[in-house]
Fold each of these.
Amino acid sequence: ASLVTHTDMVATLLGRVAESLPGNFAIHPLPLPPTEFLYAAGWHPRQVAEQLAEHGLYVWDGNYYALAVAERLGVQERGGMVRVGLAHYNTADEVDQLVAVLREFRR
């Protein structure tokens, strides 16, 4: 499989399993590169990023110079979002680990 096909597969997997996350999560996919913006109600994006880092999952918090997007989604005043960027080297197991850690989040 090509790198693009693999990256698309991992992004699709994340989108599918994300549907099973607790209701306080909102995930907004962007097409290229496969990127997911994650918002967890009741959690500041920095807290989410720090919790994920404790499990070896490295993401970004803030608006990533996408101020208009953060404002349009209504999350800028709450610290922005968590950005999960997927690439050709990410595996389905890593997506599973991400979802497992996110399922542990409680309000």
Note: The chain has a mean pLDDT of 78.
Amino acid sequence: RHVVQDTGEGIAPDLLPFVFDRFYRIDGARTHDPASPPRTGLGLAIVKSIVELHGGTISVTSEVGRGTTFTVDLPPVVSALDSLGQPHSVRFGRGGDSPSKDANVV
């Protein structure tokens, strides 16, 4: 579990369902310092897509005047050792008279 929390102005409850939508920006984000990079409203949509591609979930809670919390839950990573119970060897080669090589998968 990964948690990102701020103490900013927060997001109104009626706007929370839309924060992961592509091109969605909260009203206050529509005006920004012209010297800063333009905002597209794609960041959280991209984050959600990446998290879901990894089999995870992302959620948001917020309280106006207190801040916002994003929580990302990802499934555990299973290594070859975990899935097989022990390291194993793989033989590479074409067979016949060709030399082959062993590689350990851990």
Note: Strands lie at 2-5, 57-63, 67-73, 88-92, 101-105.
